[in-house]
Write a structure and sequence with these properties.
single chain; about 450 residues; mainly alpha; Growth Hormone, Chain: A; 19 helices; about 80% helix
Length: about 450
């Protein structure tokens, strides 16, 4: 767990990008299986109220709890990453996530343990949130800071690629267990995806341990330029940047939980569609996202990151309306095409935004800066999106237009923030250390 490695220096950029991809895939697999379980089964297992709406809201409430812990994870591991190294922080986050996820798979139900069961669920969910809160920023920086300045948007996108890969794995795992008898699925089948995480943890650990410390941060250590309390420095000198970066992340974070968590509940409970069919549709859409993201990152490096982000965010404002019209038809093809319309633009934003916001902070506070930006946004836009969507569905039954407007608002926040951060970065470029004008 030191900053040294036996991998030749010339191969470190590839190794770093691969490790970022594998590590974030595992982290997001763990996070997404919780989201899927919250939508499908946690209400019955841990919150058996007798009212489907209340049980679902309670389950999504524990889902939101994980997001509330993410800013704390960004603070703790951002501090560690900006003080002693990106690699050490990432090794710890991976282990915490693996232990918490396996622990959830071993929990007793409410019927078996009473109120203790949901309490333990919330504790382990907080641990998941803490781990993801520290994981994202470090993975982005380990991939991006090993690459040349011209390739950082593309390199950083490999950390982002872990999100659709983790989603694909989580959907495969739940597609397998949802084919079981309903009673077996509720009793023990849902636990299998969580227990599989133990194997993934070992794989991720041994891949990640072979990556050396980030060259940018190694230089900071060598020149003794670390900041005593990075978060204080971020809030004191870069609070505008922090707020703008939060806005940039809004639809990429909120949107993925809108389409892959809330829509799962909406389609199965409101539209009455078969959950296995919906999972199959989401699986196809996740594959589409997996291939779109690296293409979007490459295109962003070619024509300019801010241009791609502005176009994708503007298109996202209009995208949810045709999505809901198609999803409401209830066929597999219409659901796939409908969600794909939204996801193409959301994936482009998610892929390109990592390098875009990373270049907005100085190296010595970069881990903390991007982690807090992403995780504060996650706590608000990600954690609350399924709750707000469920609430809107309850208030406006059989009406999708308010849901589409909600998604448009998320997209508009991102659009305005991308424009604002582009202007802000151009003004601050001379003071941004390794940031480049091209990334603006």
């Amino acid at each position: 767990m030191t900053g040294t490695s036996h991998v030749p220096a010339a191969k470190q950029p590839v190794r770093a990008a691969t490790a970022a991809f594998i590590g974030t895939t595992i982290e997001w697999y763990d996070f997404y299986i919780y989201a899927t379980a919250a939508a499908l089964v946690f209400g019955k297992v841990f919150f058996p109220t007798g009212d489907a709406f209340l049980s679902t809201m309670a389950a999504f409430g524990t889902f939101a709890v994980g997001f509330l812990a993410r800013p704390l994870g960004g603070f703790v591991f951002g501090h560690l990453g900006d003080r002693v190294g990106r690699k050490k922080a990432l090794m710890v986050t991976l282990v915490i996530m693996g232990i918490a996820t396996v622990g959830i798979g071993l929990l007793p139900s409410y019927e078996q343990a009473g109120i203790l069961a949901p309490i333990l669920l919330i504790v382990l969910r907080l641990a998941q949130g803490l781990a993801v809160g520290g994981e994202w920023g470090g993975a982005v920086l380990m991939a991006g800071e090993h690459a040349s300045a011209k390739r950082r948007t593309f390199a950083a996108s490999f950390a982002q690629l872990g999100s659709p890969a983790g989603l694909i794995l989580s959907l495969l795992a739940f597609r397998m267990v949802t084919s079981m008898d309903e009673a077996d699925f509720v009793s023990w089948g849902w636990r299998i995806p969580f227990l599989i995480s133990a194997v993934l943890l070992l794989v991720g650990y041994f891949i990640r341990i072979g990556v050396s410390e980030s060259p940018d941060f190694a230089k900071v250590l060598e020149e003794k330029e670390t900041t005593e309390i990075p978060a204080r420095e971020v809030f004191r000198t870069a609070w505008r940047t922090l707020l703008l970066c939060m806005g940039v992340c809004t639809v990429a974070i909120g949107g993925i939980y809108f389409t892959n968590t809330f829509m799962l509940s909406y389609a199965s409970q409101t539209l009455g569609l078969d959950r296995r069919m919906i999972l199959d549709c989401l699986f196809v859409v996740a594959i589409i996202q997996f291939f779109i993201q690296p293409l979007a990152a490459w295109f962003a490096e070619t024509v300019g990151t801010s241009r791609v982000l502005i176009f994708a965010a503007a298109a996202s404002v209009a995208a949810p309306y045709p999505m809901f019209m198609l999803v409401s038809q209830g066929t597999s093809l219409s659901i796939i095409v409908g969600i794909a319309i939204v996801l193409v633009f959301m994936a482009a934003i998610y892929s390109a935004m990592a390098g875009f916001i990373s270049s907005a902070f100085e190296t010595r506070i970069r881990y903390t800066g991007i982690s807090l930006s992403y995780q504060f946004c996650g706590a608000i836009a990600g954690g609350l999106t399924p709750l707000i969507g469920t609430w809107l569905t309850h208030i406006y039954p059989n009406q999708w237009f308010p849901l589409a407007v909600f998604y448009s608002v998320l997209s508009a926040i991102t659009l305005v923030s991308v424009i604002g951060l582009s202007i802000h970065k151009r003004r601050r470029d001379p003071h941004l250390g390794t940031a480049t004008a091209h990334q603006a």
